[in-house]
Structure formats: structure tokens, C-alpha cells
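Predict fold of Receptor-like protein kinase 5; 209 aa.
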Amino acid sequence: MFRYFLFYSCNIGPLHLKNLESLRIYLTPLENNFLQTIGAMPSLKSLSLWNCGLNGTLATQVWQNLTSLEELSVEFSSFPSNFIQVIGILTSLKRLEVSGWEVNGNLSMHAWQTLTSLEELSVEFLSLPSNFIQDIGAMTSLKNLYVFDCEVNGNLSINGPLHVKNLESLSIDSTPLESNFLQTIGAVPSLKSISLWNCGLNGTLRTQG
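Predicted 3D structure, encoded as C-alpha cells:
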């Protein structure tokens, strides 16, 4: 059984790798139907795209066939604005890493709310709205959140109730925070670990009863 396959700056043709569990594509311009071109991959659990680019709008139907996908990593790649909405149909997806992502068009932050099965989310080198933590509030299964070196229109802030009731680990690095961030995030009862570095933060964590 194939467990790992690598494309490196090559042309992708029909492969129909039905037993493939892990696929990595590097340095390869992609068409929006690249999954359809590769063929059915019902056993795929891990997909990694590095320095790739997609043109046009992604077709939802093709992604629906990735019924076993648990891990998805998209790094330094250009993708259509409906990408998050499309992968929201992946009910098996547990881990998502997005780094240095260039969005073609306007990304609706409400799209993140479709990722209800996600347990771990890592965002790096992205441009985020100040209410990003609020936007991902519908991720009720989220346990680990990592935010590294992201640009924010202002500071990351929390205004209103939080719904990430299962969050256990929070790590924020080189991303500006509001001064009351610790007080607000302290209301999450499941939180076990907080790591903050170079966030320009002043404040104290609210004492839990």
C-alpha cells in the first residue's frame, strides 16, 4: 500500500491511487481540478501543498471524495477565496495548517466556521481581522490553536462570548494582542496551556474560581 507520494515541479496526470494515504505536492502550479485529474483517493489521510498555486474556483464535488482526509497543510501557496468553504465539507478533517497563504479574492472569515470537526488549527504569516478568535468560535471541536507572525488590522481582540469550549492549548507568537486578551481568554474552562511571545501584551489572567 502506498503511504507517501511526492510531486516536485512536474505535470500531474491521472493516477487513481486508491490506496494512497499521504500526498505531498511541492513547487507545482495546479489547476482548480487537480484532484479530479489525479483521480480517486478514498484512502488519503494527509495532503500537503507547498508553494503551489490554483487558478479559478475550486469545485466542491471533487473535495467531497476525500472522505478519509484528516490532515491538510497549505504553505506559501496561492488559492481561491472559496478554499476554506470548500474544505469545510471535509467532516473527517482534524488538523489544518495554513502558512503564507495568498488569497485570490476576498476571504469571508465566516468560512472558518464550517470547520466544525477541526481539532488543531495553525495559521502562520497570514493577514487576519482583529476578531479572528471570534470568527473561529464555531469550531467546537478545536483543542489546539497556533497563531504565528500574522498581520492584524489593529490587535487580536475578543468581544463577546467564546464558543471554543474545548480549547486546551493556545500559542500566539509575534502577533499583536489587545491588553485585555488574557482576561477574556481566561473564561475558557478547558484551557490548560497558554504560550505568548512578542505580542505587545499587558494584562493579567483572570483568576478562576
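Residues 108-209 form one domain.
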